[in-house]
Amino acid sequence: MMDFTEEMIEKVALDLHGTTKVMVGDQEIDFKRPFKRITMMDAIKEGTGFDISGMDEEGLRSVADCLNVEVDDSMGKGKIIDEIFGEKAEPHMIQPTFIIDYPVEMSPLCKKHRDNPELTERFELIVNGKEICNAYTELNDPIDQLERFQEQMKLSEKGDDEAMFIDMDFVRALEYGMPPTAGMGMGMDRLVMLMTNQTSIQEVLFFPQMKPEAKAVQLTEDEKAIMSLLKANSPIDLNELKAQTGLSNKKWDKAIKGLTKNKLVKVEKTDGGLLVSVV
Questions:
Q1: Shortest CA distance to 217 belongs to which of 180, 182, 264?
Q2: DSSP 8-state assignment for residue 104
Q3: What percent of the residues of the chain are helix, what percent strand, and what percent coil, each to the nearest 5?
Q4: For residue 252, how far is the Cα from the chain centroid?
Q5: Are 100 and 39 in contact (CB under 8 A)?
Q6: Residue 163: what pLDDT?
């Protein structure tokens, strides 16, 4: 999967730019294969000088404290390791780098590493200090999966709002059987940002309108008359404006309320009385 990923990204760079070297901001990033591969623990050691391999939660909290990485009581081992990596290692990985061998605590849906049960068969690709893709061998052991879910529930009880719940339907499906499976998810938006040297995601994705466009306000004849007078003289004393319109009290109240409701005019109280002005 890593070979496939780096081959695909290298080809994208070559097809777009004719070279594997791409400028991203003031950084030159080389997408030529092979990409660097480093374990999670070695990446943290390289970035901080601390070897956290085999540390318990108390030891990890001590390291986080030394590194001024903020953690709280709701976090378990996996979350603390993730915080340390995210603050002290990941931002410095400019050239394409595969992070491999994630701790079990960080990956509740990943299959355990075939050579080390404390780790999982998972990798992430980091480029320019950001994750581009995440991939792993799917956990297809229902007993192991249920135990992982139970550990997640313990974290949830401690206050970790990102912990997973126990999905018994999923566990039951695994009991029926699941073939060896692997998957990879890539952030196409981030990849396009890298390849086109964009710093804003809005430049590479179409963001649909979150709400309908405001429709033009349809004014009544009385409202149009008031607006015409205000455009010639704004602000103006409310009573004077009312007199100039020649409207009855009922028509005046309805018209001025309609204009203020649509935020076309505003009425302000001053020492000299009420003033009406165009917004």
A1: 264
A2: G
A3: 45, 20, 35
A4: 51
A5: yes
A6: 74
Q: What are phi and psi of 184, to 5 degrees?
A: -140, 130
**How far from 232 is each of 72, 159, 241, CA to CA, in Å?**
62, 62, 11
pLDDT at site 271: 81
Contact of 22 with 13, CB cutoff 8 Å: yes
Question: What secondary structure does DSSP assign to 83-102, as a single string?
Answer: HHHHHHTGGG--S-EEEEEE
Bridge partners of 21, per DSSP, are 30
Q: Give the residues of the chain that fall short of pLDDT 50.
A: none
* The pLDDT value given to residue 214: 62
Question: Tokens 């002290």 belong to which residue?
Answer: 88
Which class is 2-140+179-203 in CATH?
A: alpha beta
Pairwise CA distance, residues 33 & 43, whole Å:
20
* Side chain identity, residue 75: M
In whole angstroms, how far apart are CA 205 and each of 2, 8, 133?
26, 21, 18
Cβ count within 10 A of residue 4: 10
Residues of the chain with CATH 3.30.930.10: 2-140+179-203
The two tokens of residue 193 are 């940002």
Which CATH number applies to 221-278?
1.10.10.10
